Amino acid sequence: MYQTLCQALIAVILALGAEFLYAQQSPVALPNPINGPGSTLSLAPRAALPHSPPLPYGLELLSRFDLLPYLRDSRCVQDSSYDRNFYNADFGHFLRVEGHTAVLADIRGPGCIYRFWSANAAGHLRIYFDGAATPTIDCAMQDFFLGKVPPFLQPLVGHKSGGWYCYFPMPFQKHCLITVTDPGPMYYHVEYQLYPDSTRIATFSPQLHQKELAALGEVLEQWGHLGLDPKPSVVEEQAQDVQTECVPGQPLTLANLSGAGEIDALHIRLDPANRYTLRQTVLRIYWDGATRPAVEAPVGDFFGAGFGKETFAALPDAMNDQGGFCYWPMPFTKSARIELINYGQRSVNVLFQMRYHRLGQPLKDAGYFHARWHRQINKEGENFHILEVQGRGLYVGEHTAMQGDRGIWFLEGNEEIWVDGESFPSIIGTGTEDFYTAGWYFDEGPFNEAFHGCILKDEAHSRVDAYRYQITDCVPFQKSIRVDIQHGPIDNYPGSDYACVAYWYQTAPDDNWSPLDPTQLTPTHWHAQDAIEAESLRWTSGDPQVIDDMNLPVLASGGAVVELHGGTAACVLPVAKEGDYILSLVQPPLAGTARLGQNWAVDDPKQVGPAPTEAIRADETNSVHQTLHLTAGDHTLFFQIPTGQTLYLDYLTLRRLLHPNSIPATDLKVVEATDGEAQIQDMTGFGPYWDNNQQLWFTGHRQGAQMTVELPVEKTGSYELSVYYTTARDYAIVQVLLDGNPIGQPTDCYTPNVQAKDQTILGNVMLTAGVHRLTFRAVGKNPASTNYLIGVDAIGLKPLP
């Protein structure tokens, strides 16, 4: 069925290609590029290197996943809109601007564009090849990405979760110029291979020749069946099938092959398969008698699932209920040994299946497959390190599980790739989700494509799991490579917990990158922002039990909860400094367990009220709050749990109030975010001017973008309603709506630097008890502002007489 569709689509290309108005090419003088780094790097002479076998390019290379291990003498570079001043304003920066037309790339050939991306495609796209006076591609930019311009077919082009992308190769012999008229504040990447000057390349034409059509059909077939082996079938392929038990602490050999060969596919299923076993059971592969493994990674992470059992399918790998599958080609010269070691406390059952074939002669000029797991608790000012190795090879991608504790704004970080000791990265990006070929914090949620995807986005627990496989846009290196990514816009999300697996090929059968530390093999625990973990408190009564969330159906902050049974309980709450606070107690969503309501008090057990009769629901994280004036020193929390019931407490937060009669905006529930993402942002680096050093941050990216929060009102009455905004150079003009009706005047939140704005009074209102809605709408922006962001510190709600 899918093959028939592919044939029909190719027929459409043949029928329509001649009817589209593509220009005939004629040589003209090439304009001088200004900066790149990609376009600038293309100006340097490029020599062919020995031991670089001739390989196809363009669609033919895209269709041949089996050729991935071969060494290359090409150079992968990128033009992008990264902020040349490194202030995180990674949009609207072009090689140059000529009137209303921006130049995105200006490349000396020979080369081939393998990835073209934007977060906000707009305007009119023109692509010129080999010095043509008129463009070969001339269309609305969004039409190009939506597959409306032959031969650019979906899914090689498309729009997913905020990212407009194209993987359809565009080769050129002499030159490529990409322009967009009226682009607006565009985010973009143009990634391409630069070939040695002696390479002969057939320049892109929309009228594909027969080999290209055949290759396109192969690619469409492969991408239409993700999760299956995309490589050509092999004659005399052999299989190995093992079912066994992996006991703790003892290496388990699964396969031991001798002679030259190539592993075609691996399948591993663990039972039980959970976030503990998938992280604590480690896969190791040794090539050609090496004493150090070339592959060393937890089973779950190796197959692309860093937070436990997840489901997705990409071109090189997949995970589903049957386990993990991978199809990376893995050649070896003398031998291959595969083993598992269980660093957990319990045995796991293992199903292992492998397909491989023998080679009469070892592959010439090919690298060994490497995959290494690396975990890092990020530090202020230091990048997360994906890979750093010496030698010759090619980097082909990575998968990273990212855990924060105060929202997912760690995604503001850019990737940086340095090759062969260069002083400035030849690839530098515009944001983490942009690196993963999406956009706007993955605004449409998880998805999976052949080369990129987001398999988990959990904003409630500040975690993201994503992959990017660089197959045709692999990064060859002759001496060394370093692949980094920032956490936050300027590496300013310390404490974030990243764990990745980098995949690459290298001429050496082993490497010294990030040897595995068994003490790091604990599952990534979520920590609620500013949490005081219930299990860390000193309990003075109530016989509390600490329950590891390994034994629970839900995630707990810090990995554990406190279990309390019917009766009274008490714990000590230390307070460092006298002041006004909001104390919040948070319970996990464990259905049928006792709920906190009025049945708790601070310092005075006589203030403990009756317990609610309604139990907690499975879809509910119950939280209760009190606004208090607390002196420095120890205070006591008292609880009353109904007889025969069990109450679970996850964590507490104690947030100091800077603004009287106010509610921290970060405590409000966001119920809508349109044309942007709502996040909690740490403001520590900007001074002590925000409640609890944080704000509610909305990353609106166009006029009309808005977020809506729930505003709880305890008592019916008249109130003075106000807002404490943040202002900055990329913030919007904001109009507030109360229950759908505008209140107050629009507020211009632009300032050249980040500031906490004084109270903005919206007006006096009559509010009924219950939940109301506040909407913050970007109705415009100051001419000096560069975007439509909104920051809210607190909502003032002052009772009136």
Automatic annotation (TrEMBL):
InterPro entries: DUF2961 (IPR021345), Galactose-bd-like_sf (IPR008979). SUPFAM superfamilies: Galactose-binding domain-like. Coiled coil: none annotated. This is DUF2961 domain-containing protein. It comes from Chthonomonas calidirosea (strain DSM 23976 / ICMP 18418 / T49).
